[in-house]
């Protein structure tokens, strides 16, 4: 057994040595790799900088908005929440000209909110009515941006998602640039790879030189910091690409699921043959669905519901968040709008989901660092700043060598 282990170890060392020699061979491959790293970096640098710096600014938006918007909180009370129908009625009084599109309960200290998304002269507008979740009393109406109101974090989010361009243009540019950034990270690793894996070479590759040579410092800031954020940069890029391109999301699901095709996300349907049953109900179906869900979820941290149903066969959806400040761990409940019969779908309960489905639910929290709580957000903030610096240091290096 010892001889076998020694032989395997020797083979591994031989392979790594061979790989090292190939990576540092002055070959056509290396010249092409360096050329791609340079010109792909120059081509995508501005977009990468904008996406990274807006991502860094957006990381703590929840914490900052919580401190600046007191109307989003109420005093906790030892009583049940008001039913959804009461919240909808209050919200419609203040915004009677649009159908509500979303209803949210937070924890016991959070205000309830009904949102209204609509098309306003070619742009997507969003208005919110905040209410006391215990009494359904009005707290505040939040006007859409552009009508006397400016929300800094909405502005930053628009830049991060679509570069402040029309959605169908900006998101494609960001998606392509993110894919290029992933290639740049891999080519950068090949360029960084030490010629020899000894103490001196590793120290040179892993530490910033403290001297008065400005050009050397810029080189180290690009190479060394680029290596340290390599893994995190790949994670940010991959989680972003899952949203940017359907083919990428499907491929990533296929790999993480071990070869399964990603199912199309489709809400289950209600039985329209039972529509006559709803005519005799004194309690709105949305309220009954709400109470049925609370009977199964004793300590929800967030509840989201669809307040209005557009189709006759549409089902009532209730999404229950289980961890405050995180979205990945949630359960989904669907009910027939006429019979209130529960309808189960694949992946509707987090603990019963497959690995690939859980990973898909985690995508947003991984991308923002929230998956690790406050330490994860701090890490995401710092990594994003470093990523934003890489196009700058890379451009300076290229300019100095012209």
Structure notes:
With 402 residues, the protein is α+β, with helices and mostly antiparallel strands. It has a domain at 31-59 and 165-260 and 376-401. Helix content is 52%, strand content 11%. A hairpin with an 8-residue loop joins strand 6 and strand 7 (330-335). Helix 6 packs antiparallel against helix 9. It starts with a helix and ends with a helix. The mean pLDDT is 89.
SSE pattern: HHHHEEEEHHHHHHHEEEEHH
How many alpha or pi helices?
13
Helix/sheet category: alpha+beta
Q: What is the overall pLDDT average?
A: 89
Number of strands: 8
Which keywords apply here?
402 residues; alpha+beta
In short:
This protein is of the alpha+beta class. Helices cover 52% and strands 11% of the residues.
Secondary-structure blueprint of this entry?
Elements: H1 2-23, H2 28-58, H3 61-68, H4 84-94, E1 102-105, E2 112-120, E3 123-131, E4 138-142, H5 152-162, H6 167-192, H7 199-206, H8 214-228, H9 230-244, H10 246-256, H11 285-294, E5 302-305, E6 316-321, E7 330-335, E8 342-343, H12 355-368, H13 373-401
Antiparallel strand pairs: 1-2, 1-5, 2-3, 3-4, 5-6, 6-7, 7-8
Helix pairs in contact: 2-5, 2-6, 2-13, 6-8, 6-9, 8-13, 9-10, 9-12
């Amino acid at each position: 057994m010892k001889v076998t282990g020694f032989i395997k170890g020797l083979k591994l060392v031989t392979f790594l040595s061979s790989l090292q020699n190939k990576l540092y061979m002055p070959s056509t491959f290396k010249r092409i790799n360096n050329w791609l790293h340079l010109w792909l970096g120059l081509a995508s640098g501005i977009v990468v900088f904008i996406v990274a710096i807006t991502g860094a600014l957006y990381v703590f938006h929840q914490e900052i908005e919580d401190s600046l918007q007191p109307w989003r909180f109420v005093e906790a009370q030892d009583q049940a929440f008001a039913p959804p129908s009461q919240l909808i009625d209050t919200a419609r009084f203040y915004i009677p000209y649009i159908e509500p599109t979303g209803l949210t309960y937070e924890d016991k200290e959070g205000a309830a909110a009904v949102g209204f998304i609509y098309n306003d002269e070619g742009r997507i507008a969003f208005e919110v009515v905040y209410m006391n979740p215990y009494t359904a009393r009005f707290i505040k109406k939040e006007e859409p941006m552009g009508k006397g109101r400016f929300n800094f974090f909405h502005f930053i989010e628009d830049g991060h998602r679509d570069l402040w361009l029309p959605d169908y243009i900006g998101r494609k540019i960001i998606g392509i640039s993110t894919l290029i950034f992933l290639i740049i990270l891999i080519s950068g690793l090949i360029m960084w790879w030490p010629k020899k894996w000894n103490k001196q070479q590793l120290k040179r590759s892993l530490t910033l030189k403290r001297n008065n040579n400005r050009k050397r410092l810029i080189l180290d800031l690009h190479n060394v910091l680029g290596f340290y954020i390599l893994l995190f940069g790949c994670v940010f890029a991959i989680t972003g690409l899952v949203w940017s391109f359907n083919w990428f999301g499907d491929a990533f699901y296929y790999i993480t699921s071990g070869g399964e095709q990603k199912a199309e996300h489709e809400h289950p349907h209600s039985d329209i043959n039972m529509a006559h049953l709803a005519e005799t109900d004194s309690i709105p179906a949305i309220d009954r669905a709400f109470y049925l869900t609370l009977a199964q979820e004793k300590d929800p941290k967030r509840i989201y519901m669809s307040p209005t149903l557009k189709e006759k066969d549409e089902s009532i959806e209730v999404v229950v968040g289980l961890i405050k400040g995180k979205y990945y761990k949630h359960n989904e409940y669907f009910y027939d709008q006429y019979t209130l019969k529960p309808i189960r779908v694949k992946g509707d309960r987090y603990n019963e989901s497959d690995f690939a489905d859980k990973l898909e639910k985690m995508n947003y929290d991984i991308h923002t660092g929230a998956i690790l709580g406050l330490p994860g957000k701090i890490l995401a903030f710092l990594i994003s700043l470093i990523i934003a610096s890489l196009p700058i240091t890379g451009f300076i290096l290229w300019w100095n060598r012209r």
